[in-house]
Amino acid sequence: MTGFGVANLPYGVFRRAGEEPRVGVRYGDGVLDLAALADDGLIEDPSGALAQPSLNAFMAQGPRAWAATRERLQRLLSGVDAEPRLIALDDVQLLLPFAVADYVDFWSSIHHAANSGRIFRPDGDPLPPNWRHMPIGYHGRSGTVAVSGTPVRRPHGQSHGSDGPVVGPTRKLDVELELGFVVGTPSALGEPVAVERALDHVFGVVLLNDWSARDMQAWESRPLGPFTGKSFATSISAWVVPMAALEPFRVPGDAQEPAPPAYLREDPWALDIALGIELNGESVARSNGRHLYWSVAQQIAHLTANGASLRTGDLLGSGTISGPEREERGSLLELSWNGAEPLTLRDGTQRTFLEDGDEAVLRGMAGTGDDAVALGEVRGQVVG
Amino acid sequence: MTGFGVANLPYGVFRRAGEEPRVGVRYGDGVLDLAALADDGLIEDPSGALAQPSLNAFMAQGPRAWAATRERLQRLLSGVDAEPRLIALDDVQLLLPFAVADYVDFWSSIHHAANSGRIFRPDGDPLPPNWRHMPIGYHGRSGTVAVSGTPVRRPHGQSHGSDGPVVGPTRKLDVELELGFVVGTPSALGEPVAVERALDHVFGVVLLNDWSARDMQAWESRPLGPFTGKSFATSISAWVVPMAALEPFRVPGDAQEPAPPAYLREDPWALDIALGIELNGESVARSNGRHLYWSVAQQIAHLTANGASLRTGDLLGSGTISGPEREERGSLLELSWNGAEPLTLRDGTQRTFLEDGDEAVLRGMAGTGDDAVALGEVRGQVVG
């Protein structure tokens, strides 16, 4: 399958019937059982991290260990060594790949932020005054981060009616197309991480769907931000793509004007990853990781500038990634302009937000052909 | 020491030099070594939860197990059984008592919320339109929750200057006097916890100082809420007071007008706990748990109404607890009215916000005499 060759080798956690969960690497349509490879002496794992039911112990080992394992796997798969153990994807259950420590969701796509401004504050500046000075973010609920495939129950909550608050199922259930950066190496409390050292802490990338109930979010958010409009579910792909696999797709980023403060300053860069949203099997949006204004390095420098520490398993969402074009909007809020411009699907039905039974799938792919690197899909069906 | 008799028996985690951390209970000026009591067969601990370096395994066992252990400890300490093992407090180090899962900070004191409104929106309604309809909250950073005694380094960050953003150490470092409710029993994803069942999930209460950098918070919060202005540190007491110990101090709460939606409706109640802030040994504010408008049961019902699950170790901050009187303000923001009305300390110096070297201590006490129940102090010194 395209995108899962030796150029990728993403990590996940899988379970075979009757066995304990353990760490695996996706290769084509199969899963390499890393704990078994270690048992056979084909890769090194003196601490037993690869036999754990989460990636955290392996992620905590840092960039040198990640590189050594990756190099060894690439050699094994190139046939120089013994034939590796490969299990068919159909024979395993994929689990949440790591225990999420803190989940921070940023708001780093300028097109998404500006679209939000145009929708909710049509007479004002599309961007709030702080936006170009720092990567705005907030903490989300780490306990409800779930692996791709987990159904999403339509949340109930309060929204604002013409005659006061209304309680009931959300009428504006939305998806958000995001990248999620996963922290491997922790940092010390009280010691800011410099922007140029930030990537040393990043283990890899997942696709992330930050499910949102727009009506609940709008009513509750003043002044402390999103809470129950977001906290019911966040879905991530089952596979964490190593940063090393995405290095070839690093491209110059858009200029940042005005220049950010010194602690955030770096040569602008982004990851050229084609992204898309499918609704019931039909493509409804495409976007690209290039459209992120703030990099994950800047996010980490900002997050730790106050002395806050990073922990292994911290998940940093990019925020919805939208591009400048109409079809490059990373949420139904933007695609339907908050319901004013419904989408017509191939089956003739219309959508403003998600209906019960709808299935949303996020996809991501960097490059093409044998060198392509796929992000694992994020799939979720809405249950009423 | 008053407040730590058999009526209290709060749980914590301690370490003696050269030994592994384990669960203890504070009794007077000593600590009962629960793992040792279990080894001696004086209390039951078949799963070894009390020999763990955090309370989480014990907290996950649920109300029946908590009640059984508490009853057994009260009998032991009443001298009916063998003399228990007691270690002097001076001989132990107190650690963070539990691994924090998600940290949610609410905003449930009406006097605090209204004071904030009067300070920041002097021409508007002191309360935002949603405030009386639901307990407003947001997620905080669980990775920077620290035990009492941990120094707090003055955070650096961005704030709004007359000529654009300014980067540097906060000039408005503040304390927030809060109660923190600790979740023991988890709940299932997708299944809201009814308000009348919510307390089944609450293991106990800590005092909580939600350190805040007001200038950073003000600049970053629009529109996604507090982030780096809060995430650098949250301090909690070393002792978790069981809900059972506070049951005698449950009092009727203020009427809620308008009546909240059905999923939040209960007979209003609160906990009569005298609270105070000391700055460099001098009392600068007193307040009371009675001044909470929203109960922890309502907070849990609201938090889970959208299907979000509770995990063992979730920490629910009440938000700053202020009373109606001037001296009952639970933050320096309110006590100094955002700097407009400096406090004069006994030593003749003035304070608007915290200075380097200042030590803040939060205290809490329910009742008096032998039946009193003390919350452990929350102490923290500002390091420049």
Structure description:
The structure is a homodimer of 384-residue chains. With 384 residues, the first copy, chain A, is of the alpha+beta class. Chain A has 8 helices and 26 strands. In chain A, strands 6, 7, 8, 13, 14, 16, 17 and 22 form an 8-stranded mixed beta sheet that branches. The first copy, chain A, has a 5-stranded antiparallel beta sheet with strand order 4-3-2-1-5. In chain A, a hairpin with a 2-residue loop joins strand 2 and strand 3. The two termini of chain A are 33 Å apart.
Keywords:
homodimer; 384 residues; alpha+beta; eight-stranded mixed β-sheet; five-stranded antiparallel β-sheet; 8 helices; 30% strand
Tell me the layout of helices and strands.
The structure is a homodimer of 384-residue chains.
Chain A: E1 11-15, E2 22-27, E3 30-33, H1 34-39, H2 56-59, H3 63-77, E4 86-88, E5 93-95, E6 103-106, H4 110-120, E7 137-140, E8 145-147, E9 152-153, E10 156-161, E11 164-169, E12 173-174, E13 177-183, E14 202-209, E15 212-213, H5 214-220, E16 234-236, E17 241-242, H6 243-246, E18 250-252, E19 269-271, E20 274-279, E21 282-288, H7 296-304, E22 315-317, H8 332-335, E23 343-344, E24 350-351, E25 359-366, E26 373-383
Tell me the β content of chain A: 25-35%
Mean pLDDT of chain A: 96
Tell me roughly what share of residues is in helical segments of chain A. Answer: 10-25%
| SS element count, helices of chain A | 8
- Terminal CA distance of chain A reads 33 Å
Report the biggest beta sheet of chain A as strand number plus sense, adding barrel if it closes: 8 strands, mixed
Shape annotation of chain A: globular
Number of strands of chain A: 26
Q: Which structural category do the helix and sheet elements of chain A fall into?
A: alpha+beta
**Subunit organisation of the chains:** homodimer
Q: What pair of chains forms the biggest interface?
A: A-B, 60 and 60 residues
